[in-house]
Amino acid sequence: VSGAVRDIALDADDPGGGLFLQTTTGWLRVPPGGLTAVPSPPPRRAVRAPPLEQALRANPSLQANAAAIRRDARGRPISFTCAAPSHDGTGWFVGTAGGGLLFLPLASARPEPLAFGLLGDRVGALFAAPGGVWVATEETPTSDAALSFVRDDLGIAATRVGSVTFGLRYRQARRMAGAGSDLWLATDAGAVRIETRGDRVEAFDLGDGLPDARVLSVLARRGQVFVGTARGVARLDDSLRLERVAPAFDGPAYAMEWLDDTVWVGTNDGVVA
């Protein structure tokens, strides 16, 4: 759809005729089962979702618990934008600015978030795993950094956002590698280890022995993790102890690969072994 969508409606005179969208460029219609909106006259008798005010009157808990509902997990404000009752009469869908899509079951005090898709648009790193791919999205003005597992059928099977206080600890992710059930991310805040079978998030930075907190690449092989930073390479063994690799090399390590007993590093001066 080109242009902003100002209104969504069905046509009471043609209930099976598809979905009508009013945009800044005119009316469009999405035919039943279609994926493309085509130019169309407006619906003759438009059927729209009820006004937000009606949803608030029908669900007093949205007003009574506004102080808790209208803040996200990091304390940022959320505002309601629209609402519509579910077709089966079990509750209301509530659209927000800042909190995604919510569903409020009848007689419930708090709406439930409906997770679908990635939490952010800016993807910094990927890692293929059985059944799908792990996707690291970066922090933006409207979303926190997140780690999501996207299944082969493009559904979201899991999402990690870290703790309420620290999140996933990074803003930008550059590379990702897997070691057992853990994922290692090269980030602007060090090497970040995330458990996929739990909620633990651990960051390794200058204080832990990295040459630099700016991590540009990461490589996990045979129980060891190699971390390429802006000032050299370090190695983490299976006990998570850090040691410097080739201390004489203190340049940026943009890419790494391991062959036999040698780590190959992509640098500003070509390939270094």
What can be said about this structure in brief?
The protein is built from 3 helices and 24 strands.
Describe the structure.
The chain has 273 residues and is mostly beta strands. Helices cover 6% and strands 46% of the residues. It is built from 3 helices and 24 strands. The strands form 6 sheets. Strands 4-3-2-1-5 form a 5-stranded antiparallel β-sheet, with no helix packed on it. The chain has a 4-stranded antiparallel β-sheet with strand order 6-7-8-9, with no helix packed on it. A 4-stranded antiparallel β-sheet has the order 10-11-12-13, with no helix packed on it. A hairpin with a 3-residue loop joins strand 7 and strand 8. It is elongated, with a radius of gyration of 24 Å. The model has no long low-confidence stretch (mean pLDDT 88).
The number of strands is: 24
Average pLDDT for all residues: 88
- Characterize the biggest β-sheet: 5 strands, antiparallel
Q: How are the strands of the largest sheet arranged?
A: 4-3-2-1-5
H/E series, N to C? EEEEEHHHEEEEEEEEEEEEEEEEEEE
Q: Which structural class fits the helix and strand makeup?
A: mainly beta
Q: How much is the radius of gyration in Å?
A: 24 Å
**Strand residue percentage:** over 45%
How many angstroms does the end-to-end distance come to? 50 Å
Shape: elongated
| Total helical segments | 3
| Portion in helices | under 10%
Uncertain parts: none
